[in-house]
Structures are given as structure tokens and as C-alpha cells.
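[User]
If only I could read C-alpha cells as easily as an amino acid sequence. I have put the entry right below:
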Amino acid sequence: MKIAILETLETQQQWQNFSLRKIPYAYVLNPLSLVDFQSTFIQLTDIDKNLRDGRQAVKYSIGSRKSAQAAWLLIEKCQWSLSQLLRELKTLDFSSNVRDNSVLNIHGDLTVRQFFAKEKCVISPWLLQHLTPLTRIPNKWYLNDIKRVLSSQQISNITWLDERAEMRSIPAILNTLISYPQGWQINFAQGVITLLYKKSPIVSFTAVIASLPAKSNQLQVL
């Protein structure tokens, strides 16, 4: 699965187009955030451009158990602007009854919660955007080269060498390489790349540098 990247969500048409996606789940670059439309609720994750661990991000849940109307009314009151919506949410005092705020007095069933995200794997899309595909096999492999082939899925013949579940997916490996680059080693022999973490073999694979796909406004889910 990949996460779509949207430039903005600042107009009614943009929100409607987003809600009609097969999976209404996307990064937004301005303001930097992750938007997840879940049936009758919208979840917004406020993202710092250097975020490397999603558990440090503040998350908001907006909506009603009965229908999506409450969430839509709040978005409409904010002039269909995600920027304004996030600004309004940041002004709320969640230690008291948030419904006392006039911004939220629009629907009797509207609920708003603020909490820290639980998804460690959510990181800033800015950390991935510059990981372009490789165009040739490098003379010497560096960690940035590894991140580029993993992000671009330019690999084949994957062999897992570690039994830990958290180390047995390419997105998890990429996330760890970005967030915690210390301790990684690269062995390259007879065309096979082996990644080691703290001297323990994790995974081996071969790099496949073929014709490049068309540029996409999506990122690999981490």
C-alpha cells in the first residue's frame, strides 16, 4: 500500500475529491499533516517536517458516531481550509469541555479528541521525498543508496535473516534506517546486498536498476 500526497486541502472541491478516493488517507504538504477519513470521523495528525517517530505527533479525532455530517459542518465552518481547521484545533483547551469553544457549537453530536499518535511508523514525508530511484549500481554502497532502492522498490530476491517480526518488512527496515541510522552495516558480495544491524544479519537482496516508472505523488507506507 502507498500513501497519497496532496499539496493542499483548502477548497470544498479538494475535500470532496479526497473523500471520494478509494482510500481517503493521505499526507498533505501544506499544512504538513496526515488526514484519515474513517467513516463518520476524520483523524488529523499534525506533523513536524523532521518527524521520525509518529508517536511524537499530536493527533485529533473529529466527528460523530451517528454520521459524517458533524465533521463536514466543522470543515465547512473553517471555510473548507485544513490550515484554518488545524489552527482552530490548536487553540482548544482539551483540559476542559472543548464544546465551550464557539468553533465547535455547530452540531450536537460533534466530538473532538486530542491525543498522541500510536503509529511509530508515521514519519514526515519530507524525509522520503528526496529518496529518488537509483539510475545505476554504485561503485560503493552507502546507507542513502540503500534507502533509495528500498523506497523505490528496486529490489528482488529478498531473504530474511532475522526472526523478529519488527524486522521482517521492507517498510520497517526503511523506517529504521531513516530514524536510527547508527549501527547499520552493508555487505556487498557477488551482487547480493546484506544489511546488518549491530553486527546481526537482518536481510539480503539484490538491487534491480531497470527503467524508471513515471513519477507518482505517492509514498510507500512505512
Notes: The two ends are 9 Å apart (CA to CA). The helical segments are 12-19, 69-77, 82-91, 126-129, 143-151, 170-179. The chain is about 25% helix and 30% strand. Residues 212-217 have pLDDT under 50 and may be disordered.
